[in-house]
Structures are given as C-alpha cells and as structure tokens.
Amino acid sequence: MMNSLLPLLLLVAIAAVVLTPSTAFIPAASDRNAPAGAVGTRASSQPFFMTSTVPTPEESAQQLTDYMSKAHEEKLRAVADAEKKLKGRIEELDVEVSQLRGELASKSPTDGGVQSGQSYLLPATNKALAESVLKYREFVSDYLVKSQREKAKAVAAAESKLRSMYEAKIAQLEKAGTESEYAEKQP
Fold first, then answer.
1. Beta-bridge partners for 105
2. Cβ–Cβ under 8 Å, residues 19 and 2
3. Virtual torsion, Cα 6, 10, 12, 15, nearest 10 deg
4. What is the pTM of this model?
5. Environment class of 121 (CB within 10 Å of its CB; exposed 0-12, middle 13-18, buried 19+)
6. CB-based burial, 79-107: b 16+ in 10 Å, e otherwise
7. CA-CA distance, 75 to 110, in Å (whole number)?
8. Which of 54, 64, 121, 173 sits CB 3.0–4.6 Å from 15 for a disulfide?
9. Residues 6+ apart with CB under 8 A from 25
10. What sign does the dihedral 152-153-155-159 (CA atoms) show?
C-alpha cells in the first residue's frame, strides 16, 4: 500500500513547491545589507527562509486539486472540440459519397453490362488503366471465341477419325462375316 501512495505523495509535494509562488528565497534582514558576493555573513538569529510564506499541506492539496480540475476541464474541452471537427468532416464525406453514388447510379447502364461495345468508367479512373482493361476484355473475348472454334474443330476431327475407324472395323467384320457364310455353304 505504501508503494501506491508514494507517487501521490511525491506529486503533492512537487505541486506544493511548483504552484506556490511564495516559496522563493527571502534573505534575512542582516543578509540584505551584506556586500555583494558575500556568502554566509549571517549575524542574526533570524531564519534563512521565512516560514510564514510556506503553504500548509491543506493549501497545497487544494491548489493541486484546483490545478488538476482545471487541467481536466481543458482536456475535456479540447476533446470535445476535436470530436466536433471530426464529426463535421465525417458528415461532409458522407454527403460526398452519397452524391458520387447518385451520379454513378444515374450514369451507369440500366442492364448493368456493356452496351454497344462501351462501358461506363468512373470519373476518377486512370485513363491508361481503363484502356488496358478494355484491351484485356477484347483479348479474353477473342481468346474464348477462338478456343471454342478450335475445340469444335478438334471434336469434329476426333469424331471423323472414330467414324472412319469404326466404319473400317464394320467393313472388315462384314467382309469376315460374308466369307464365313460362304465357307459354311461350301461342302
């Protein structure tokens, strides 16, 4: 428990010294008349510090409490101001986003796709990027068409090859069948 009170006591002591302007050194009356540069010329029995200017612990605690409450109020005020500015900025951005969405909805095609070879590009799109996307779309569409044609040709070629192979087998079997019928008829 002593460890948890130590920082608080240290803070109170520092605040008492820092916040109290009357803690400055006040020389005794005999030291005021001493020549400049004289050290330790104290001839009287008056105290080196005037004890009436040191605040009591209660006064120090009250000053620290006042200081801390004022600092807390300023902090709350600063946080509220920052929050207000950020909320205003968020509202501005929300309005801007809704406007952009409205523009996008009004300018885009109704079917959501490409009409007559043209597509809707956002106003903030990089032109070079948009061109490369269009070129890629053309490439993919050409590739798909060509690959489907080649596939159809390959299927047709395979079918004709299989057809010719099976026709040859059928012809061979028919020939073998007619020869066996002829051989059975022969005594």
1. none
2. no
3. -160
4. 0.29
5. middle
6. eeeeeeeeeeeeeeeeeeeeeeeeeeeee
7. 53
8. 64
9. 48, 49
10. positive
pLDDT tens, the chain, 187 aa long:
556 676 777 777 777 666 655 544 455 445 555 555 555 544 455 555 555 578 888 999 999 999 999 999 999 999 999 999 999 999 999 999 989 888 887 875 554 544 455 555 555 567 888 888 899 999 999 999 999 999 999 999 999 999 999 999 999 988 887 777 666 666 5
Q: What's the full length of the chain, in residues?
A: 187
Q: Which tokens hold the place of 116?
A: 């007559």
Please identify which residue in the block is written with the tokens 């051989």.
Answer: 183
**What is the C-alpha separation between 78 and 67, in angstroms, rounded?**
16
Q: Which residues have CB under 8 Å from 80's CB, separation 6+?
A: none
- The answer to whether 15 and 63 are in contact (CB under 8 A) is yes
Task: Take residue 18 and report the two structure tokens written for it.
Answer: 């820092």
